[in-house]
Amino acid sequence: MIRLRKLARAASVLTTPLAPEDILSLFNPVFSARQLRGVVTRVVAETADSATIFFRPGRGWKAHQAGQWARIGVELDGVRHWRSYSLSAPAGQDPAITVTDVGAVSGVLVRDTRPGDVLFLAPPQGDFVLPEHPRPLLMLTAGSGITPVMSMVRTLVPHRPDADVVLIHSARTPEDSIFREELSELADQFPNFKVTHWFTGERGRVDFSSAAVLDELCPDWRHRAAYACGPEGFLDDAEALWSAEAAAAAAEGSTGSEAGGSHQPEGPFAADPINLIIERFTTSLAAGAGHDGGLVTFEASDREVEADGGTPLLDVGEDAGVLMPSGCRMGICHSCLIPLRAGHVRDLRTGEVHGEPGQLIQTCVSAAAGPVNLDI
Amino acid sequence: MAIVTNHEAETTEDAVVPSSRDDAALKADGAAAAAAGAQAAKTRRGALATSGSPLVRPPAAAHLSDEQVAELGRELDAIKDDILAKRGASDAAYIRRMIKIQRALEISGRATLLVSRNKGAWFAGTTLLSLAKILENMEIGHNVLHGQWDWMRDPDIHSTTWEWDFVTPARAWQHTHNDLHHRWTNVVGKDNDVGYNLLRMDPQQEWKPFNLGNPLYNAILAPVFEWGIAIYDLELQDFKDGNKSKEALVKDLKALGVKALKQFTKDYAATPAVAMLTGSGKQALYGTLTANAVRNVWAHAVIFCGHFPEGTDTFTEEMVEGETRGDWYVRQMIGSANISGSKLMHLMTGNLSHQIEHHLFPDIPSNRYAEVAPKVQEICKRYGLPYTTGPMWKQVGSTWAKVFKLALPGGGKA
Fold first, then answer.
1. To the nearest whole angstrom, how far is the Cα of A256 from the nearest Cα of chain B?
2. For chain B, which residues make up each domain, given as ranges?
3. B45 interface with A at CB cutoff 8 Å
């Protein structure tokens, strides 16, 4: 590897101002001096509106952990768009994303991706991953929330006889349920894996308002490390239940009753909200609401755009052709930070207006509140 | 707002994890940057007036009323909006194809020069490399550096990341060209491209005995044009006048030094060195020298055809004082000249043969200028404005005539 790099540096004497990779990309599209790319090797339809896309990444990719996500860049009518997708392949195998068609970018990925296509990539990241030490697990998923959990199940269940995994997966109908057959087969094959398919079309949404459903489907749920991934409401409800149980347990604990009993190592986790690890899909943005907007100046790029008060500055910049750094697009990964030179921005999650010169702004969840100057 | 709703739908896609990044560290960064950024939100310097007229309207446009100029501005805006709406996958495919062709020419040309002891190989290699360099500078480099392809959001083809096979560093050139030249096109005293601080190219420029050498300087400049541009981009005159700090000049000099060394090493050391393996070292050196000279002469000719042929106007500072959007458009049109010719000719000039259209819309993709040209010509005709164009030989002849004429005192229009 080191020798390769030296060779590349030597070759760049002949290719400057290009890098040798720029020349090699004539022959293999994975080569690039500037950005990680992957070539699609296989596309498998999962349901009517979802597909799994396998790809071979170029140099610079790092192997993913089960449950992580990666940013994928796709071109729509010549314009690069970046979105984050969970990797569904097990750890240790070639990466694959499973995508559900819910918008323009995911739609193109699901419908139009063919083997040989080039995807733009960022290395996998995220801390929705398996615990370091073996523990009984409870997975709660809804819809495409199964994707990162599928990677975990595939990584753990066939290879670890000591694994103990219960999965409750909610989908509208059997036809909409991604990985349904594979999950059922795994459950048949491995006694350490139990799966409950919950179809909301038949039974309504999983009820987290009390512990009744969980008590029925997984009686020892309080003693399991729980992972949840799904839509906002699903996760909020689960979170509320875990908090309520934690409060109740704490109250009980203070009256002297002993919880957990002999399972001391697992006991403290019981019904503790920390014990619920959550992977969120989206953040609700207080878009619009008639707030300001203003002239946004991208100083280094010498661009000016009139923006409304509901559009994230990230979108404003991208639409103006500025090379905006971006990440999760929901205000959590801090990949999109840009220093504010002047003006104020509104946090679209909270509605709060803030801004001091030099402050790093999360452009994906901030909109202009009056004129804004950004250092990009 | 359609964009917002669409975007929200998109973000409900698979998923992301709560961040564990250390916010305190980020805040510290912010505080450090705060000192530098303490300034109020401002509107852009040089914003054009929205109504009214310049102190003096250029003679060629003097017959137009304020309202007519405003209407002309709206018509040209509409042409641009039309292109921006159409811009898409086919344009992206175009620039990627050009880049592929250019790189294929470049490596095949350079590879052929490695065996250039053979005369045929020398001729073929030099031709291929000359073509590669011309394409790289004109159709690709110049246009990418204008931001014509920034809308693709591809960091490999972006005005902020691109570097070209030309001595002057891309950033330095972007400043003098995109900003100064395109904003102040042909305004004597503001646009130094009028003669590049070397030639007397306008009668308004005061005659000095030095100008007697006009034709000689121009003849010397052509084959080393890239060095001329590199020195020009240092803005030595601004430094002498106290308008450019020493630090800025040193920084530019360093950037130029690094770039020049790399360029020099590639063409005049590394390529001949490898060619020595086949005993073709000397021939390879002549090949790269010739290719650079061919590119320089061609670029010089094309660029001089942009604003110097007979029929293009220059302007005084009074003519830009209070200039509206429409007046700015008018100045770009009557201050520029096109070159007529075949598709290949347009390509090899980097579509600078559509100089008028390029100056109206410097950042629309170059492959769209041909489509815009008839509409612009029609507008010029309707508003009674000159639209200067002609074949290459005629335009080159016309610029050389001016170079000779202005070597002598006077030279103003009769």
1. 35
2. 82-199+217-405
3. no
